[in-house]
Amino acid sequence: MTQGEREKAIRRILVALDASPHSLAALRAAAELASRLDAEIIGVFVEDIRLLRVAESPLARQVTSYSRTMHAFDTRQIERELRAQAERARRTMALLAARARLRSSFQVARGEIAAELLRYAAEADMIFLGRTGWSGKRQLGSTTRIIIDQSPRQTMILGQVARLGLQLGLVYDGSEKSLPALQAAANLVMEANAYLTVLILANHPDTARQYQTEASAWLSEHGLSASFHWLVNTSINVLVSLLRTENLGALVIPTGSEAVPVSVLAELIDKIDIPILLAR
Asked: How many domains is the chain built from?
């Protein structure tokens, strides 16, 4: 690899933690990748300042699950619960790091969750976060959507599936954003000894053939090969079906490309439950 490509190597992995199932899945996947790459993992738990502000309001009320009655928020109880969640996340991270003999650190911050994560992301090479927090909803959480839109770093989104399989997929649309995605996929393939499947998005077979030639030449220059699938004028449902058929262990997507706008990206993440790396 060139010096510029080596600089894109993953050395510090930031994990957004809130002790929810999806965030702990992200932590397990991050620990697995960090072990392969000899990278450091940095866990960050953010105490949501908006939640604490709501709790401090004299007009705020909450409904207990057991009595269905409304009563005022107990700010001290919420702070105790946040500390307990942070401690669970810290213990889980320490256990995983010790088992894999990883370099790790754990930070607790207070503020708006997305803003704090973006601040810490400036010092990392990749971000891992869960699709949703404690809401349990299938759709992307608001924090994850903000990170997708604003993060300056590669971002891995995970649901319940925590393992990064050895069959890696890459969405390639021929745009200038495709090269960083190709480089990110190549890094993962080489470091994890994985197999690569390139999904060509194009509006005409001739264009798809051109994109395959470009990607194949780049991979060949770096000692790599891949299988290719053409998706010509394909709907997102066809893409989702193919992803399930290929049984991919993870998918790399270029962010900011016209072929995969944020709205389509969010819909895709909602519909499949494999790790998705958003390359920049």
From this structure: 2
